[in-house]
């Protein structure tokens, strides 16, 4: 009768697509043919016809087994990593080691999944993108933040209303290949309700031991994800889900120091910003001194996001003036910087001009990098209490208690009257009270402040310090040494006291900082008193010497008592002989 049967045309279309698609697994072909037979028997007006057609579209457009042979040239990979990522050499070496293993195994890898840990703007995405370029693969970024259901990862069964594939299948279809490099971002915002089944679903995706036959609930046919390179990123180690910790390899990206930010700004950020705003290098001139001022006065971060935003503000204002043809060349100077960026937002800490009693320069690590942190102390009439202010955490309060107990035990060495600890209160204050502070790195600084106020000796103003103290007076190692040394250097303090165990960490510092700074390594707090307290001479009348003198006197008394006893015995013997 001339009727057009649409079902038969659809079936013929899908059968032709099966024949033309290369590397299609037998499991996929069998499932597709079953669905095509069903499709040919359904009415085009039924809801199941549309659902089956949509399923076939997904099933046959996933890049099953589509990949390119991997041939990594280590020398080229090293060059690409150096060009695309500015960071510690040890990280690039670690990446090259993993690439070498893949090369020897023919593109296969059973190593734990790489997890990049660092504050925003520290180069996690740049490093992952450089690795993708070194492997010659497509780079895909997926934000898993906000995902809290297994269906988001593994899809929902076809029997459900509104069924859909998971995020991984959607990414592979968009990429058109099965050998992409996928950066899983915002792991710290993933599964906020901490449902273990959701964590395990994502782990099934990234773990090379399980992802060779990954099953999406919607697709219903296993797919090999072993050729996909997964890289995770997170802000801090504590925010990694506990199920991931044994299955991942941590690579911690530290914050950039000021000198590194200036280099990155000149080599990467400024050229990119000029290109994005239609400007040329001849239009824009800025010195290292101005870049340093932008970093110190307008940003307070470990990464480079805020720095990029400030450079972008300058470029927009220059673009406006250029569009209005007001000028052809712009030089950013100390006089004009505020016209582009406004009043400085942050005022960095500076070293004190003179030694004072009860104030010491400590060094702290924060999410924005290293900071100079002054600690103040004061004694006043009271009953021996310790008062602490400055929005302190529990760890720091305990550190203050330990420092106070140690100084009290060393009162005789410091020339402090023991009764002063019962007659005076000590107030320890950390300025910038609105900023929460916690961590084990201020113990020796607090010990020095307490010793200063109780002995009434000033503390050197040209030295900064970091380290934790035990009750026995031992100085423990701390972290974030690179950032802390940079903070001292930026504040104009070129002498730093740090734990002996941290001497090895100075290898990461730039040669410029090492050449200008002087480092003192201490193992006990007693050495710090001798180094930092002005006019300090350890008291010769110590408790140990009192004990030693008493012991010597006791030793002298014993022979004298023995002689007296011998004399008495002789006298009594002679008297008894006379009586006889």
Predict the CATH topology of the largest domain.
Answer: Rossmann fold
How large a portion of the residues is in β-strands, by DSSP E?
Answer: 5-15%
Q: Give the count of structural domains.
A: 5
The CATH architecture of the largest domain = 3-Layer(aba) Sandwich
- Average the pLDDT over all residues and give the rounded result: 84
The SS-based structural class is alpha/beta
Oligomer: single chain
Characterization of this structure:
With 580 residues, the chain is of the alpha/beta class. It folds into 5 domains: 6-61; 74-252, P-loop containing nucleotide triphosphate hydrolases (Rossmann fold); 258-341, Helicase, Ruva Protein, domain 3 (Orthogonal Bundle); 359-532, Ribosomal Protein S5, domain 2 (2-Layer Sandwich); 549-580. It is elongated. The chain has 21 helices and 16 strands. The longest helix is centred in the C-terminal third of the chain and has 37 residues, at 543-579. It has helices at 6-20, 26-41, 47-61, 74-84, 89-104, 124-135, 150-154, 167-175, 196-206, 258-276, 288-298, 305-323, 337-341, 394-409, 411-414, 420-423, 443-455, 481-490, 511-516, 525-532, 543-579; strands spanning 113-117, 139-143, 181-185, 229-234, 248-252, 284-286, 330-332, 359-366, 369-381, 386-389, 424-429, 463-465, 468-469, 475-476, 495-499, 518-522. It has a 7-stranded mixed β-sheet with strand order 10-11-9-8-12-15-16. It has a 5-stranded parallel β-sheet with strand order 2-3-4-1-5, with helices on one face.
């Amino acid at each position: 009768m001339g009727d057009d049967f649409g079902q038969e045309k659809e079936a013929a279309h899908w059968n032709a697509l099966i024949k033309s698609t290369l590397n299609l697994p037998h499991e996929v072909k069998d499932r597709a043919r079953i669905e095509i037979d069903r499709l040919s028997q359904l009415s085009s007006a039924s809801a199941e016809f549309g659902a089956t057609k949509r399923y076939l579209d997904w099933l046959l457009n996933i890049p099953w087994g589509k990949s390119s042979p991997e041939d990594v040239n280590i020398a080229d990979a090293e060059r690409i990593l150096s060009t695309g990522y500015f960071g510690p050499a040890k990280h690039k070496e670690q990446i090259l080691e993993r690439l070498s293993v893949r090369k020897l195994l023919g593109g296969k890898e059973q190593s734990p999944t790489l997890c990049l840990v660092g504050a925003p703007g520290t180069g996690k995405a740049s490093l992952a993108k450089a690795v993708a370029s070194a492997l010659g693969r497509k780079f895909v970024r997926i934000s898993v933040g906000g995902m809290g259901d297994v269906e988001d990862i593994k899809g929902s069964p076809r029997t459900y209303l509104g069924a859909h594939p998971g995020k991984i299948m959607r990414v592979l279809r968009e990429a058109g290949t099965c050998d992409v490099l996928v950066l899983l971002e915002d792991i710290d915002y993933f599964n906020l309700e901490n449902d273990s089944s959701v964590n395990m679903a994502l782990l099934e995706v990234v773990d090379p031991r399980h992802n060779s036959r990954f099953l999406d609930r919607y697709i219903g046919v296993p797919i090999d994800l072993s050729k996909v390179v997964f890289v995770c990123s997170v802000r801090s180690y504590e925010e990694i889900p506990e199920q991931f910790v044994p299955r991942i390899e941590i690579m911690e990206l530290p914050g950039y120091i000021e000198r590194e930010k200036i280099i990155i700004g000149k080599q990467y950020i400024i050229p990119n910003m000029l290109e994005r705003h239609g400007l040329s290098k001849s239009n824009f001139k800025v010195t290292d001194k101005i870049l340093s001022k932008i970093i110190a006065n307008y940003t307070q971060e470990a990464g480079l996001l805020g720095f990029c935003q400030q450079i972008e503000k300058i470029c927009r204002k220059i673009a406006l003036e250029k569009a209005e043809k007001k000028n052809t060349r712009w030089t950013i100077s100390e006089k004009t910087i505020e016209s582009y960026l406004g009043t400085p937002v942050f005022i960095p800490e500076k070293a004190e001009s003179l030694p004072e009693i009860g104030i010491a320069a400590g060094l702290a690590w924060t999410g924005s990098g290293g900071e100079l942190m002054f600690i103040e102390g004061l004694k006043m009439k009271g009953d021996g209490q310790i008062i602490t202010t400055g929005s302190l955490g529990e760890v720091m309060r305990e550190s203050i208690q330990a420092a106070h107990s140690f100084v009290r035990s060393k009162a005789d060495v410091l020339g402090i009257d023991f009764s002063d600890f019962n007659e005076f209160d000590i107030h320890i204050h950390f300025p910038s009270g609105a900023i929460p502070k916690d961590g084990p790195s201020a113990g020796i600084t607090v010990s020095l402040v307490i010793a200063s106020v109780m002995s009434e000796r000033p503390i050197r103003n040209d030295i900064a310090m970091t380290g934790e103290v035990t009750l026995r007076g031992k100085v423990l190692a701390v972290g974030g040494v690179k950032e802390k040394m940079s903070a001292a250097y930026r504040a104009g303090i070129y002498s730093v006291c740090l734990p002996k165990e941290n001497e090895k960490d100075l290898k990461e510092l730039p040669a410029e900082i090492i050449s200008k700074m002087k480092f003192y390594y201490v193992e006990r707090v007693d050495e710090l008193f001798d180094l930092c307290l002005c006019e300090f001479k350890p008291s010769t009348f110590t408790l140990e010497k009192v004990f030693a003198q008493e012991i010597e006197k006791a030793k002298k008394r014993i022979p004298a008592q023995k002689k007296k006893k011998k004399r008495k015995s002789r006298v009594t013997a002679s008297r008894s002989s006379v009586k006889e």
